[in-house]
Design brief:
The complex is a heterodimer. By secondary structure, chain A is mainly alpha-helical. Chain A contains two helices and no strands. In chain A, helix 1 runs antiparallel to helix 2. By secondary structure, chain B is mainly alpha-helical. Chain B has 15 helices and no strands. In chain B, helix 2 packs antiparallel against helix 3, helix 5 packs antiparallel against helix 6 and helix 14 runs antiparallel to helix 15. Chain B starts with a helix and ends with a helix. Classes of the chains: A mainly alpha, B mainly alpha. Chains A and B meet through helix 1 and helix 2 of A and helix 9, helix 11, helix 12, helix 13 and helix 14 of B.
């Protein structure tokens, strides 16, 4: 594993890995942004403003890391 | 009989005290953190890192995580007494005075910085202190008792050890180091929530807003499955960046497939019967992902 550089000869493997990663992570990330709440569940309590920020932090991190990985 | 038992009890007391202080560091949790630290070191070195560097980085990593855990014992001593799982912890049970646990944790944290700074470099030392600060400040003091996102955001502390290991070898943090951080970061929610499902009554009794307590069991199981999908996707990013190859790709897909199946079985189960298996597999999974990275890099 290299500190930043890639293995140019493995481009098909890299593209395949990117496609699989996107297939797994993108729909799941979208679903995570819309949490379900069962009627009468304890989650009916109002959310705090910071909760919205916390919810998107992992998604932003994922997008940034995926972009850097694809560009490497 | 009494005259013989008394000296024996006295003889075992120092050992019991040592045992309590070791317990303050939560050694079982630290062992997995050190696997990720060592794994990052092997990967960063492209083979076996220097023996002494590896040894002292493990020591420094243990001291940093142990210090954070000891301080956590001090801060959480009120709620530890309300949870069946934690009532026997050294501080809440009165075997170690709270102030001593706090001082012990602070000393371990300072020692960790000294060990890592002298044996590796000051970036590794600073990162270890950042991890300690995240665990104590962001997780334990702030989010654990106030937000349902406590594990997701506060759990970032547990993802710092690979950064420490990487920095100890290279002296900097490249993309690959952050990808290792991300693997642990995205692994933490499905791992911990599987445990939280089992311990939900404890957390409810203590008033800790873990996901099963706040959002209920069905939503927790749904989020475990979704986070597992994201996590497996993230484990493929080292291949996307060109930093890992086919051996790792196949390993990550196979290991991830098992995790997804377990999370799916848990999500479909009307109860939480698969939570324990998911939790235990998650421990093995993280270790094996790092082993696969090491083998791929060798």
């Amino acid at each position: 594993m290299l500190a930043g550089g890639g293995r140019p000869g493995d481009m098909p493997v890299r593209v395949a890995a990117l496609l699989i990663a996107a297939l797994l992570a993108v729909p799941a990330s979208i679903a995570l942004l819309r949490p379900r709440r069962a009627p009468g569940s304890p989650s009916d309590a109002p959310r705090k403003p910071l909760d919205a920020v916390w919810a998107v932090v992992p998604i932003v991190l994922l997008v940034v890391l995926a972009a850097f990985s694809a560009a490497a | 009989m009494t005259t013989r038992a008394a000296p024996a009890a006295l003889a075992t007391r120092p050992l019991a005290v040592v045992g309590d202080y070791v317990r303050l560091t939560k050694p079982r949790i630290i062992s997995l953190l050190l696997v990720t630290t060592a794994g990052a070191m092997f990967v960063a070195a492209g083979g076996v890192p220097g023996g002494w560097l590896l040894f002292w980085t493990m020591v420094g990593g243990y001291l940093a995580a142990g210090g954070a855990n000891a301080i956590n014992h001090y801060i959480d001593r009120d709620i530890d007494g309300r949870m069946a799982r934690t009532t026997e912890r050294p501080v809440v049970s009165g075997r170690v005075a709270p102030a001593r646990a706090l001082a012990f944790g602070i000393v371990l944290g300072l020692l960790s910085a000294l060990v890592l700074g002298l044996a590796a470099n000051w970036l590794a030392a600073a990162l270890a202190l950042v991890g300690l600060g995240l665990y104590v400040g962001v997780y334990t003091l702030w989010l654990k008792r106030t937000s349902v996102h406590n594990i997701v955001i506060g759990g970032s502390a547990g993802a710092v050890p690979p950064l420490v290991g990487w920095a100890a070898v290279t002296g900097d943090l490249g993309l690959s180091a952050w990808l290792l951080f991300a693997i642990v970061f995205y692994w933490t929610p499905p791992h911990f929530w599987a445990l939280a499902l089992i311990l939900q009554r404890d957390y409810a009794a203590a008033g800790v807003p873990m996901l099963p307590v706040v959002s209920g069991i069905p939503e927790t199981k749904r989020q475990i499955l979704l986070w597992t999908y994201v996590m497996v996707g993230v484990t493929l990013l080292p291949v996307v960046s060109g930093a890992a190859g086919m051996l790792y790709l196949v390993s990550a897909l196979a290991l991830g497939a098992v995790f997804i199946v377990l999370a799916w079985l848990l999500a479909r189960d009307p109860g939480i019967g698969w939570a324990r298996a998911t939790f235990h597999y998650s421990l093995l999974y993280l270790a094996l992902i790092f082993v696969a990275l090491v083998l791929d890099a060798a």
